[in-house]
Amino acid sequence: MIRKFIPDKEISLLGESDLLKTKVYADNLEKIINNTPSKEVFTIGLFGGWGTGKSSIINTCKDKIESSHEKVRFVTYDAWKYANDSFRRMFLLKVQQELGYKQKPLMQSFYANKSEDVDINTRFSYPKLFIGLFIAVLLMIGITFLPVDNSDFKILGTALIALCTLYYNIFIGAVQELRVNVQQPKMFAPEQFENCFKGMMSKCLEQKSWAKKLQSTFDDYVALGEKPITGLDKLVIVIDNIDRCPSDMAYQLLTDIKTFLSNEEYNLVFVIPVDDEALKKHLFRKLDERNGYNIDKEKEEFLRKFFNVSIRIKQHQEYELLHFAHKINEVNHLRYNNETLALTAKEFSDNPRRIIQLLNNLNTELSLYDDDFAQKNESVIAATLILREEYPEFYKLALNDLNHLSKFKVEENSEHEDILLKVETFMRIAQSTYRNVNINDLQRIFTNTSSLYDAIPADIRKAANTYDSEALATYINEHSEEKDDVIKMCIRNMDTEAKYYADGQQASWLAFFAEMHGLVGLPKQDLLSIDRTLNKRYTVIVPMVDNTDDVCKLAVELKNYGSPTLKKSILEYLVADKSKGNTNYPPFIKSSLGTFNSTEDCKALHAISMDFFDKQPIFEDVFYSDAQKKSLFDDEFVESQIQSMDYREDGFKERNIIWCIKNSLALGSRPYEVLCNKIIELFGDTRGKTLDDYLNMIKYSMQFLTSMKDGKAYGEMAPLYSLVVSNRGIPNQSWPNKRQYDTQLSIVNECDSQSAWAIAEFCLEIVRVSNGDTEVAPTIKELIPECEEKIFSGIRALMLKGIRISQFAGIIMSSENYENEDILVLTEHLFIIRPDEQNLLSDKVITNKLSSLIDHVNIKIVEDVVCRLGENENYKDLVANDIAARDNQFINTLPTSVSKLAVAAFTKESSSTFANNYPFLSHVVKEGSASQRHLIVGMMKKQLIDGHKLELVLDVLSNLHNLNNTDANSLCEELRSAKEQIADNEELTSKIEEMVSHFTETKRK
After folding, report:
1. Number of CB atoms found within 10 A of residue 95's CB
2. Element housing 775 (H / E)
3. 8 Å CB contact between 923 and 960
4. DSSP 742
5. Cys-Cys link to 587, which of 46, 316, 368, 548 (CB 3.0-4.6 A)?
6. How far from the centroid of its chain's Cα atoms is residue 641's Cα?
7. Phi then psi for 61, rounded to 5 degrees?
8. Dist. CA 671–CA 965, nearest whole Å
9. How far is CA 871 from CA 658, 854, 901, in A?
10. Residue 429 in contact with residue 421, Cβ under 8 Å?
11. DSSP string of 168-192?
12. Long-range pairs for 351-354: beta carbons < 8 A, 24 or more residues apart
């Protein structure tokens, strides 16, 4: 469809052309011009925004006035057209040309530089004089020797040459004139500008008598041309586009008009069409409010002082602009639909010119598409054109994600809130237009393409071409329904580039798809498609990729799908390039170890890891499978690492060995034996070694010991222990080379507390790794005085781990420190015999230790141990018997919890054991149960009958209370019988009477 373009020019508002009813402003301007005061320069401001028809208003006014008043003339000066030159010079030139005047010399000096000679100097050139004379002499000599017989000819010829040479030197060659020239620049004096303008005004406007007198004054500035304009009643000068000029020029232009052109009695009218708001911002851009200075008021004051009167074009109503758009459409036969016109009119409701421009631009835009598509999507294309021209930031957002159009919403604190707020009003109108368009059509409108993947935002398509996997993954996670299209697009791009075998790009695609698979997961068919494209170049591109983790994982995935090429290529690269120092070789080793973990993979990686970790530490942050731990880090690997240790604390081989000891699942005893022998080898001959030497060796050994599992090295570490604790030879100063004279010393005898603990800790670690099979107790016993607490704490730690500590039984049982919790815990542990340690402690040791514990039972931690042993079936009788054997004073000081253990041991079966232990029986009488008291009553009645130890029996009975009637009656009878037998003993008799009375009273209660 062919549409016409709308001419964007000033029009006459007469007739039907006044589509926006602006002729009223032209009529008003005409009235003002016709009624301006005579003999006065008058300034009129026509205020309105850009495109509101100011030029058409002035053009219409001009046509009407000039057609009805032949002595009124309009002159228009476009300030923007001459913005790069001086306003004064170009303004005078424009006025002079419009009025048909010639320039006199003084006015011409305003436009051209003047050149003038001010001095002439003459100078004589000696070099040129001598050159001329030399040539003359040569010529004369030549004439003299000419083969001519006539001597007169020769004389005459020679004379003529001499005269010519003299003439040349004097008047041409030897004499030079130097002229001094001065170039005067163009004149810029303000008074020159003022006088020139007045001169023209005095000629074109009618002058009264005083002006005619001045006529001769201005003849030097201007003169009449062939068809001059003179005798005007009024001259109207229109100065247009001031608001488009630079700030300094605009300000100068206005001030020049007011200062130099408005002070005479001329019938002169200045009409200045301008956007007053733009002019205010323009002229006062650098000003602000300071010290109460009101800049807005100052702006208004400036315009008020400059313009004698102003006409303001009022803002058009939306329906007026809609009517205007429809009229434009109708008059120019554009055939745009109503929706397009409504969108345009609403967006540019304050600027008719922008409507014209938009419709012209839309005409161009529609020509990019076929007629059917353009007609179908005309309104959408128009809305998109408005977005592109008026809201470019939002247009870029929409170009990247077309969902912004159909799902437009402004959310607070969103990333693009400021951009969305600017376009919010327009999108409220246009959103319904965008909702009705097909996404593919919309993509074509925004990109002018119709590819299968046009619906994918431009920035996502760009991300695919730049291998930006993170951006694509983010998009796919947010638009899962488009995942397949995005992946297919990437594969298509890869296939296109792969045709040209660009290895660097293919490596980038491999890395890209591997990372994408890790981020979003690629379908099986897509992975196989990628593999088919790249597999022929794997051997070349694998060494070029950087994201080795993702590539190795992709290789495993492809292997599971039946395509092992990538995995095979990686393993071949690791074998072939391991000595070439490629920067990505270590990452590939690390990634392959963390990914290739099948039994088959381990066989392939074994030799690679053996060689690689011989030169650098094991990757400790890799998760190794059990198969890898068994296969890669086996005895062979560990032994090879041990053989190359160098006794340095910072050596990575030591760290490798330690890691293997902690993590390997297949180490036998051999590596530990090799390790022990290697340490002994590194330490060397012990002769002459100092304590510090031993301590350093112990420190070096401890890093391995502490990494070993409990009971892992049963006897392999024994030689190392022996090396530490055995005597070493100290050379005799008198016989340093004779070993037989060496003094034999043990480092154990040289220790302070710090070094003693270092040795003790070493010994305890030997016990731990050998599960107690290595005997270190003798050494520990010697070290106890220096670090008792730490040693017993270490032994307790072994006990808690389940390590056999039987070798320390003698040390523990002989300790007299009853305030150390570790010792008491260990003691109790030794008492509670395990089945395999029945003969650990002898009966004598047990009895003596129990007695010692009871001696210190008033210490709380000892009390707790005794109580627990007293509740043990194996020791409760021993505890009770020991307590029962104590005197009454000791028993009375026992903690309640311990005394209860002894009382509980008094039973019918054991009562005979305590028959003569009167203090203990008294304690049972007081603390025991009714049944126990009943037993004691029976025992005491027998002793009353026998009459033995009557006083001790009475002491026991004096503590009885709460007897039942039967026991009370029987006991009273026996007491009376005993009284008769000792009638002569008044003290005991009296005591028995009191006791009988007490029991009788108790019975009554």
Report:
1. 21
2. none
3. no
4. P
5. 548
6. 41
7. -60, -40
8. 82
9. 46, 14, 8
10. no
11. HIIIIISEEEEEEEEEEPPP--HHH
12. 351/49, 351/50, 351/51, 351/52, 352/19, 352/20, 352/51, 352/52, 352/53, 352/316, 352/321, 352/324, 353/8, 353/50, 353/51, 353/52, 353/53, 354/51
**Amino acid (1-letter code) at residue 587:** P
Angle of helix 896-904 relative to helix 860-870, nearest 10 degrees, comes to 20
Q: How far apart are CA 236 and CA 761, in angstroms?
A: 112
φ, ψ dihedrals at 239, nearest 5° = -110, 110
Query: CB-based contacts of 723: which residues, under 8 Å, 6+ apart?
Result: 680, 683, 686
> Can you say how many angstroms the Cα of residue 20 is from the centroid of all Cα atoms in its chain?
57
Residue 960's nearest CA partner among 925, 931, 929 is 925
419-470 pLDDT, tens digit per residue, is: 888 888 888 888 888 887 876 777 778 776 555 566 678 788 888 888 899 9
pLDDT digits (tens, 9 = 90+) for 769-805: 999 999 999 999 999 999 999 999 999 999 999 999 9
Query: Which amino acid appears at position 65 of this protein?
Result: I
Q: Mention every residue, 6+ apart, whose C-beta is less than 8 A from residue 50.
A: 275, 278, 351, 353
CA angle (245, 250, 254) in 5-degree steps: 145
| Residue 647 near residue 682, CB atoms below 8 Å | yes
d(CA 115, CA 597): 96
The structure tokens 């052309």 sit at: 17
Q: How many CB atoms lie within 10 A of CB 27?
A: 15
Phi, psi of 43 (to 5 degrees): -115, 125
State the burial class of residue 605 (Cβ atoms within 10 Å of its Cβ: 0-12, 13-18, 19+).
Answer: buried
Query: Could you tell me whether strands 267-274 and 234-240 are parallel, antiparallel, or unpaired per DSSP bridges?
Result: parallel
Q: Where are the beta strands (DSSP E) in 839-902?
A: none
DSSP structural state of residue 794: H
Contact 572, 532 (CB under 8 A): no
Contacts 24+ apart (CB under 8 A), 750-754: 750/691, 751/691, 751/783, 751/786, 752/786, 753/786, 753/787
Contact between 161 and 136 under an 8 Å Cβ cutoff? The reply is yes
* 3-class DSSP state of 43: strand
Which of 598, 515, 531 lies closest to 565, judged by CA? 531
User: Does the global pTM surpass 0.90?
Assistant: no
Cα-flanking dihedrals φ and ψ of residue 2, to 5°? -100, 125
Q: What is the pLDDT of residues 380-417, one digit of tens each?
A: 889 889 888 888 888 888 776 676 787 787 777 677 77
What is the CA 866 to chain-centroid distance, rounded? 64
